[in-house]
From TrEMBL:
PANTHER family: 2-OXOGLUTARATE (2OG) AND FE(II)-DEPENDENT OXYGENASE SUPERFAMILY PROTEIN-RELATED (PTHR47990). It comes from Artemisia annua. It holds the Pfam family 2OG-FeII_Oxy. This is Non-heme dioxygenase N-terminal domain-containing protein. InterPro entries: DIOX_N, IPNS-like_FE2OG_OXY, IPNS-like_sf, Iron_ascorbate_oxido_reductase, Oxoglu/Fe-dep_dioxygenase_dom. GO terms for molecular function: dioxygenase activity; metal ion binding; oxidoreductase activity, acting on paired donors, with incorporation or reduction of molecular oxygen. The chain crosses the membrane at residues 96-121. Gene3D superfamilies: B-lactam Antibiotic, Isopenicillin N Synthase, Chain. Signal peptide: none annotated.
Amino acid sequence: MVMSGTPVIDMQMVDGLADEIVKACVEFGCFRVVNHGVSAELMTEMKAVVSSLFDLPEEIKRRTANPNEHGKGYIGRNHIDQLHFSRVLVLMKFRILINFLIVLVPPFTKVYLGVTVTFTYCHKLTNHSFVRPTDIINRYIKAIRDLNGLLGRKLIEGNGLNGDLFDGWCCQLRMNKYHFSAESIGLTCAPIHSDPTFLTILPDDECVNGLQLVDKISGEFVPFDPVPGTLAVNIGDIGKAWSNGRYYNVNHRVLCFEPNTRYSIALFVLGPNNKIVEAPSKLVDSEHPRLYVPIDVEKFRHVRNTMGLRTGDALDLFSTTST
């Protein structure tokens, strides 16, 4: 089985949706979704917002940077294998409750986005030909929230559990811009890594590809090229830990194939608000002994980053057999 046959799952499937999602997480660690509730128009608008963000003057973008809160605001350009790579991060929390629909609507936006988008970042970018950023971002977040909630519920159902998996989980929206040039063709701009997340939801840049995944069986890189109208979903380290090792935390990278600009808008589903992740007892039995101790998500990310363990091996340090 190779990832060239990565599943495309219809999120409006009536029967068998939960089983299909779980199967894809186990066998591939990734899949694509159609009929996902994020309109093509909204994805186009969101990409335009991201492009506008990066096109702002450097001085304006740096107003969003917060040296006391790493990973928020404009990061700036990093030199990675002779490429320029920059990103804007938006930290947020998903609260999949009835009142979630309320907090997305002004004047309650501040309750949901806190100081990250509307009231810290985007207001600092006003009066600079940047039109309606928060409206589009909020609509995009709501649509992705709904999809993420459905994925969480189906993962619970597919494992024979009850509840709402991602209720109250902390998430992060990361917007990246890759500056590809003729000199960078063939180079790696995002080195091989797994995501330190439960899962990641990514709308493809249909104009520029470059994403490659490590096949679970062969260990070889295989392309994960854009498919119009779909969103890509992949499992990260926390997803593998929660599933007691059943889900495949797929390693991936981004290569430069053509001199063009590539954008990515990734939603990272990080972990619960209490920060602790562990496999449900129903996923632990004599054939599947508990593989990992309860994991503090923030501690895990710290260990992973400080030790440079970014290809899934950080989980070994949280193994129940680790000494």
